[in-house]
Fold each of these.
Amino acid sequence: MASQPVNVAELELPELEDALAERGKPRFHARQLYRWVYRRGLTDFELMTDLSRAMRTELRREFIVSTPRGVSEDRSLDGTRKFVLELADGRRIESVFIPDTPSMTFCISTQVGCAMSCGFCLTGKMGLLRNLTAGEIAGQVRVLAAATGLLDFPFNIVLMGMGEPLHNYDATLKALRILHSEHGLAISPRRITLSTVGIVPGLERLAREPLMPNLAISLHATTDEQRAKLVPPNKKYPLGDILEACRRFPLKKRSRITFEYVMLDGVNDTPEDARRLVRLLSGIKAKVNLIPLNPAPGIPYDRPSDARVDRFAQILADRHITVSVRKSRGQDIRAACGQLIVEGGTKKTAAQQMALLLN
Ligand code: SAH
């Protein structure tokens, strides 16, 4: 009776133990498999030398470890590396390695494309092609850690690649549990940041999770009218509701919510915007990360001058809000925020997308 092989990459440790037991194999092999796959970066059962030869042969018959396949890599002059990864069904995603920020950081995707359609983001132009599975989300970390030689070293993870993590809630949280396993990469939730446009039911669920990543909210505007134009989900989840969910969000000692704010020249970068932002954030343990727009063809906004960014930042700092200006990394290879896009989107022809990629 030939049945579908079990995909180890999609399973949390207890699920893998069950899968082994159901096939008459000792549960403790799950820990061994986790160590090989996550700590050593190996997926070929033949190379797992602490398993008997007979067991390796059986595993090869009944189990697989599917892993996103690296199809190309671009290296930026600043050390940023952008990986194009192909999934089992041929769909492609992008993941980015950003060195020394001051830590090593992997920026990974949660969806192929994105349904949020933010007006300044290239991924939004693709539309949503599909959700990633937990194994595909965690698999990006395996691939990047192996490619950068960081399997044995600490690194941070930001869920800031393609997609909206709270729009693919279950797979995203499952991936975090897989990555957290002490028999695998053992990544602390303090090293993980989940960035969201602010899907309120998702925020409320997240607030009750035992495994709680750091939270970043993509705010980008200070009035509902302005935000609904830039971030369409605001029509459903307006600023007041998002900030209310943030006020209720349980934070560990000394931790804060990051508010990301893409600065668009002449649109949301005035001193009045800065002062409104201060008022909106009152009562929230917040820090603000200003992201001067990374311009791209097809994006109808411009990057403000450094002077405008500095003036905005100064207003926040004067009101005792911690503020940083995000340096754009990997712009020369289109690896910067909002620049991740691969072919196959629904909203553009292949030729249009190629033009975007090559420009
Ligand atoms: N959907 C989630 C996760 C993606 S994070 C979210 O929106 O938070 C991607 C970050 O890059 C977001 O803060 C997004 O607003 C920002 N971004 C998107 N396009 C950008 C651009 N063209 N320039 C600078 N930052 C951009």
Note: The two ends are 53 Å apart (CA to CA).
Amino acid sequence: MSIAEKFASMEYGPAPEDPKEAVTWLDCHNRRFGLFIDGGWREPAKPEYFDTFDPSTGEKLATVAQGGSADIDAAVKAARDAAPKWRALTCHMRARYLYALARLVQKHSRLLAVLETMDNGKPIRESRDIDIPLVARHFYYHAGWAQLLDQEFPDHEPCGVVGQVIPWNFPLLMLAWKIAPALATGNTVVLKPAEFTPLTALLFAELCQEAGLPGGVVNIITGDGSTGEALVKHSNVDKVAFTGSTEVGRAIRGATAATHKRLSLELGGKSPFIIFEDADLDSAVEGLVDGIWFNQGQVCCAGSRLLMQESIADTLLSKIRDRMSALRMGPPLDKAIDIGAIVAQVQLDRIQSMVAQGIAEGAHCWQPQLALPSRGLYYPPTLLSNVHPTSIVAQQEIFGPVLAAMTFRTPNEAVELANNTVYGLASCVWSESINVALHVAAQIKAGVVWVNCTNMFDAACGFGGYRESGYGREGGREGLLEYLEPKWLKHAPKLSASPAPAPLEPSQPQASTPAIDRTVKLYIGGKQSRPDSGYSMEVRGADGQLLGEAPLGNRKDIRNAVEAARKAAGWAKATAHNRAQVLYYCAENLALRRAEIIQRLATAVGTKQAAQEVDLGIERIFSYAAWADKFDGAVHNPPFRNIAIAMNEALGTVGVICPAEAPLLGFLSLVMPLLAIGNTVVAIPSEKYPLIAGDLYQVFDTSDMPAGAINIVTGYVSQLLKTLAEHDDVDAIWCYGDDTLVASAKAMSVGNLKQVWTNEGRIIDWFDPKIAEGRWFLEHATQVKNIWVPYGE
Ligand code: NAI
């Protein structure tokens, strides 16, 4: 073809990246890999292996060890043995190792990019320009945190040995997201890469050797789901970090419920991509290309649900179709390719079957006429329009290059549609009106909102989900907290098991004998109410004396309380100053009633403790009133033309199981930080002295606390916990109790994957403000939402 002809057609010629270096690397290993344990290579205990393929050609790339439970044992032991020395290093020494890893990633970036593309099928343009630079950035950023760790987190220590399981869509990037913060905080690691894409993790193991990382600090065990399962269930693992499907995330939550392993989950998504009529449509369409066709749509935060304002739907769809027709699909090592191969046959089958279901449910399917390569696993970019919001393709993660388009009329409808899935990972809002964009951004339930941009990532900006997209954040300061624990917590003694709840011997309502001096009620929606059961439970003092009766709340009462809490969403929208004022007012009213409350509480805990509980309780409320307008977010400066506004948002409605040992102070220590941030609460007071509810609601009633912001249901804790933990409208559970109680809170919360925060069965000294109040509590009462906004030149 002559130059003139080329100009006329503007056709791309082939521009293949040379795979020679990667092929040489594979050949040097005879295309066969063992396990990386204790700084060296080992054969698996059972000689089992599997093959990994190039999905764009179907060619076998290498044979890789299938790690079994004996190998996981060996790796965890190596990590455990390495932990004390790694932790004892100075911050600066750990920072040097992380810095060395960052440098080595950069030095070998071309090899890593090519190998990633060969193993995964993603375009080299993406692995070269996005994945690998972000990997290096992650190690640099965390080298910085390693250096600053003692200064910035003086009262924390590492979790210990961390088990990490990652998916195949961003193999090396997910490894970096996991390993960098774990090492920076002084943990040691056993990581299992995904079975479809193990190669770059194995090359990374060599970089660890090249960096001189001490043996056992990083161990890489390849294998399938059963290897992952053995790792997360291993009794000597202190923390589990997982990225992958919501289904497996749920299984891991269940498998670790009875243990004290910390858990962070980064799961699926069905992220909305909202385009308003005043958006710059051409830019929005370019954003969409990145949003859904990046990495063949195999992206947890893919903008897979297009929500278009009705007035522009036709114009927009036509622009999208035009743009789709210009996408180039083909061999991913070609530098001018937009869409590469799907990772594996099973994934391709899944995409095909979900699209077929979507069409059966009424969607119109459009695909551009692109020539598919003659071999390899490819799926064309696909537009599904006329999608009903309840259709499978609007609700479930397809994890392929498939966009499901829907329309809306008003911003409120857009928000409703956007929040109408079980997920909450990411979202995009396109509008030239800053008011519309930020108004909508505030209401979307997602860990990330990209305004007039999409798929922006940086190590400084935490990433993670709301709702069934998981919990915990990766990146940023908040990401480090996933790998740290307060020193006091780890070494606190265990609570002895509390006796099983007394057999139900309810007394009849209205039963009054002269000995009963007090009958309290439930507190729901700002009103005192009788329990649905009509029964109450006797409350006795330490000496067995009858102190009064507390209502025996049941499922219905919990449901009413949750409904009231949901309705009180205005509490989250109140200004922090207003919330602070209400809390101060609570402290004031508690102080006014000080003498009478001490007198009553003394019958259960003795006069000394009662006085301490009330006086420290007043202080505690003051503390959280003070924090309410000071627990700010941050503004990050990522290396792009954006700012990322990290907002500390409330979790939503939180169910709180209050500690038994300090009925008033324990209640306030948990409920107040939640309220300070704007959560609404359903609290179950200590069974030891539930009568405290009566004093508390009088305080709340007289303090301008909005109806429903705090609800109190008394009764048998383990029974009420079940309803709370299983309730889909409860966003999180805080459960403070013995080992059995906290394990059941975790196990029962599996359904909608609500986050559970507990004392891990340990004794908390509620009377020591250094332990029982402050940032640790506030950090658990919030989730960070990063709102990315274009900024500056
Ligand atoms: P998956 O969740 O099964 O695999 C992710 C990782 O977990 C892999 O390393 C796998 O070996 C491991 N694993 C599997 N079962 C395990 C278990 N019981 N315990 C511990 N580890 C286990 O995801 P899969 O099967 O590769 O993909 C299925 C679907 O999941 C995709 O179609 C997509 O919808 C979704 N997915 C979502 C991802 C995300 O980042 N949100 C990533 C990968 C998949």
Note: Residues 165-169, 192, 194-195, 224-225, 228-229, 232, 243-245, 248, 251-252, 267-268, 300, 347, 350, 397, 399 surround NAI (CB under 6 Å).
